[in-house]
Amino acid sequence: MSPKKYAKYITTECFSEPPPPGFLKRMEEQRQAGNYFEATRMLSLDESILKGSFYFDCVWLWNKHGSEPVQMEIAHTHDFDEILGFVGSRKENPRDLNAEIELWLEDEQYIITESSLIFVPRGMKHLPLLFRRIDSPVFFFTGGNGALYGRTSGNEE
């Protein structure tokens, strides 16, 4: 049987590049202090995986350990528009995240407790991203109209 013509447009894997060392160091330091979350990277897509596609990444956040917030990301900017999404998983009320997530848009702090989409226009400084509480799984995704994920500021070595 010959391969299907459009099968290349369906991906079931997470092919993204490994995170930068600064991210890994920050996450490990927090873990050693007892503050961490359990997560599963699910799917990713960008120009390196499928020519012509845009960047997209999604993760299940299962739970958070420790009393201090876990900082996942630092403040940064992009030369593309980006969307951040947080979706609750409880059947009885999926709009309630049953979690508390802190993020910043420029110099304004926001505490996210409901399923949300956040639009970040190109060039807008956004984050840091801190997870204060995760009491039920949260589906977290990011996507942007850039072919590859990249930052114009806030790069981590």
Walk me through the structure.
The protein is mostly beta strands. It has a domain at 42-144: Jelly Rolls (Sandwich). Helices cover 8% and strands 45% of the residues. It has one helix at residues 21-32, and strands at 36-45, 55-65, 70-73, 82-88, 96-105, 108-114, 116-120, 126-134, 138-144. The strands form two sheets. A five-stranded antiparallel sheet has the order 1-2-9-4-7, with helices on one face. Strands 3-8-5-6 form a four-stranded antiparallel sheet. The longest helix has 12 residues, at 21-32. The N and C termini lie far apart (47 Å).
Number of strands: 9
Which structural category fits the helices and strands? mainly beta
* Coarse morphology: globular
The CATH homologous superfamily of the domain at 42-144 is named Jelly Rolls
Radius of gyration: 16 Å
Biggest sheet statistics: 5 strands, antiparallel
Gap between N and C termini, in Å? Answer: 47 Å
Overall average residue pLDDT: 93
Approximately how much helix is present in the residues?
Answer: under 10%
